[in-house]
Amino acid sequence: ETVATLCKKHLLFQIDNGELKPKSIDRREDTIKNQIEKYPLGKMQINAITAIDIDNHFSLLSESSLSNSSIEKALDVLNAAYNWAIARGELSINPVAQIKSTIQRRLANREVKTADDADVIVLSQEERDLFLEESLKKNKWNNNYKYYGGLYGRFLLHSGLRIGEFIGALWEDYDEENGLFRVDKNMVYAKNRDNNNEKKHISITGSTKNKKSRLIKLSPEAIEDLKLIKERFPGKAKEHICRTRTGKNYTATEMDHLMNTIFRNLGFDKEISGTHVFRHSFATEMHNQGADIKDIAAYIGDLESTASNYYVASRVKIRTKNDETQIIVPLPTNKKVPTKDEDSEH
Q1: Residue 114: what are its φ and ψ, rounded to 5°?
Q2: In the prediction, which pLDDT does 323 show?
Q3: What is d(CA 280, CA 123) in angstroms, rounded to the nearest whole number?
Q4: Per-residue confidence (pLDDT) for residue 175, from 0 to 100
Q5: Region for residue 269 given its phi and psi (left: phi exceeds 0; alpha: psi -120 to 50; beta: otherwise)
Q6: How many helices (H) and strands (E) does the chain have?
Q7: Is the four-CA dihedral 186, 190, 195, 199 of positive or negative sign?
Q8: Is the Cβ–Cβ distance between 302 and 190 less than 8 Å?
Q9: How far apart are CA 137 and CA 154, in angstroms?
């Protein structure tokens, strides 16, 4: 049995036992096909593999243009498949586990940042202002918004929602009277595995990514965004908030394209891409205003460690006198926001 075959068998086992969400199934399937099966390791017999073979395979992946995320997925798939084979009594040694920590250290070194690199990609204050202004522009000939998805982007920037949470949200999830928004769904588009259906991909609505629902208090800006969306694209309680001109559901990829059109028209750097930059920018803005990481994580529905390491930017973009952009680490300050009583004393 080859390594690729083992990985495929393990994936089928996970599917049959409901261990993976549809989108995760697609990702693992692509990982096996593109980062394992196409390489010499994928064609080798599982009982002949040594730690050296695993090391050589990941050296090849590291020399390619693949992102660390893609390489780490391949490492996880191989490690899980071998552990599964050991649990079933088919193998006694996992060669991946023997060298996993070494490979992870190499991947970390692969992403060493220079003084000019951002730690987290976010919109600067200037870029935020430009985007918010551009997203409200209208056509002169019909007074319709220039960008169909502009209002949707504004709400993502002012709420910090995941794109799947937003495209899965219904109007009934919004308590307009109290300014509350229920986040308990996540919509993804995954490969259709039903042979009776001709569609290649279908929308699937499930629980949130961390399987925890939350009821968030919206900011005045987010409330205003929903007001504008409702005026332009009204919908009934059971209808999705985020819809195309024909009333269909948007996919995450389509929403990314809509935002990228605005970013490119504004002349933003290519590193600013897709809708996830809004979530990063929202978390960073909350942190800059004095919010605690624990509270930020609870609001955006993520772990504290994830919010701290991947969502809050410690380096900021500034404009120099020569109109050049530089990445700097600002002087630390006390970000505590004064209470009304403290403010009145001063």
Answers
A1: -90, 180
A2: 66
A3: 8
A4: 96
A5: beta
A6: 15, 7
A7: positive
A8: no
A9: 12
**Angstrom distance (rounded) from CA 325 to CA 185:** 39
**In sequence order, which ranges of the chain are alpha helices (DSSP H)?**
3-16, 22-31, 40-43, 51-63, 68-87, 95-110, 125-134, 150-159, 163-167, 220-232, 252-265, 276-288, 293-300, 304-306, 340-345
Which element (helix H / strand E) includes 206?
strand 201-206
Per-residue pLDDT reduced to its tens digit, 199-222: 777 778 888 877 789 999 999 999
Q: How many CB atoms lie within 10 A of CB 106?
A: 16
The tokens of 101 are what? 């920590």
For 145-166, give the secondary structure using H, E and C: ECCCCHHHHHHHHHHCCCHHHH
Q: Which two tokens stand for residue 287?
A: 């942190």
Cα torsion 51, 56, 59, 61 to 10°: value is: -100
For residues 137 and 148, give the distance between their C-alpha atoms in angstroms, rounded to a whole number.
Answer: 10
Coil, helix or strand for 136?
A: coil
Burial of 293 (0-12, 13-18, 19+ CB in 10 A): middle
User: Cα(44)–Cα(49) distance, rounded to whole angstroms?
Assistant: 7
Distance CA 236, CA 241 (A): 9
Give the model confidence (pLDDT) of 31-41 as tens digits. 999 999 999 99
User: Cβ distance 153 to 135 under 8 Å?
Assistant: yes
How many Cα atoms are found within 13 Å in the side-chain-facing hemisphere of 147?
Answer: 25
Could you tell me the two tokens for 75?
A: 């490492």
**What are 52's two structure tokens?**
């050296």
Phi then psi dihedrals of residue 219, to 5 deg: -75, 160
**Distance separating alpha carbons of residues 290 and 333, to the nearest angstrom:** 10
CA distance 258 to 12: 35
Question: What are the φ/ψ torsions at residue 207 (nearest 5 degrees)?
Answer: -75, 170
Bridge partner residues of 138 (DSSP): 145
Rounded to whole angstroms, the Cα distance separating 165 from 209 reads 9
Query: Taking a C-beta distance cutoff of 8 angstroms, is the pair 326, 124 a contact?
Result: no
